[in-house]
Amino acid sequence: MPVVTSFLSGLLFGFGLIVSGMANPAKIIGFLDLSGRWDPSLALVMAGAVAVGVCAFFVAGRRTRSLLGAQMQLPAARRIDARLVGGGLVFGVGWGIAGFCPGPGLVALGMGEAKAAAFVAAMLVGMWGFEWIEKRRRQAAIPAPQSLEDYA
After folding, report:
1. Cα 121 to Cα 28, 64, 89, distances in angstroms
2. 3-state class percentages of the chain: helix first, strand second, coil last, to nearest 5
3. CA distance between the termini of the chain
4. pLDDT for 116-145, tens place per residue?
5. DSSP assignment of 37-77, as one string?
6. What residues pair up with 71 in beta bridges, in sequence order?
7. DSSP 8-state assignment for residue 126
């Protein structure tokens, strides 16, 4: 049952990305182009996503098991650190350059978008690179940077 539920949830999510325009790089670039012909329509999509997320985390935080009986696994980290800020910056720059973020990139790849293939390949290389760096860091027992000054 969890596989079917996961598949249907992913299908619904992908359909929502297509309908909202999030799988269209031109729409994303238009939203991010504040000094040109700015398209604010995706702000409503994002506001809706944040509202749903806040409600979902509110309900999930009060449960020990999901509706399907799985153990709830919510993130424990609460602080904003250098890794979070750095990751957000890399994500934002990549989103602005490509017009894709991971979910919409995969949906666009499924729609046959050639640009999405390059994006997904670069995303996979970036994920592999991160895992490689993290593995080497753990092997060397080097602590992760905790503040922006640690990067200087």
Report:
1. 20, 37, 20
2. 70, 0, 30
3. 49
4. 999 999 999 999 998 998 898 888 876 666
5. S--THHHHHHHHHHHHHHHHHHHHTT-SB-TTSPBP-----
6. 65
7. H
* Measured distance CA(106)–CA(117) in Å, rounded: 8
Please answer whether residues 109 and 116 qualify as being in contact, where contact means their C-beta atoms are separated by less than 8 angstroms.
yes
CA 33 from chain centre, in angstroms, equals: 20
- Helices 102-110/114-139 angle, 10° precision: 140
* Phi (first) and psi of residue 102, to 5 degrees: -55, -50
Give the model confidence (pLDDT) of 19-50 as tens digits: 988 888 888 888 888 888 888 888 888 899 99
Residue recorded with tokens 């670069």: 122
Distance separating alpha carbons of residues 70 and 90, to the nearest angstrom: 33
3-state secondary structure of 140: coil
If we measure between CA atoms, which residue out of 96, 129, 100, 125 comes closest to residue 113? 100
Sequence spans of domains, the chain = 2-151
Q: What is the pTM of this model?
A: 0.73
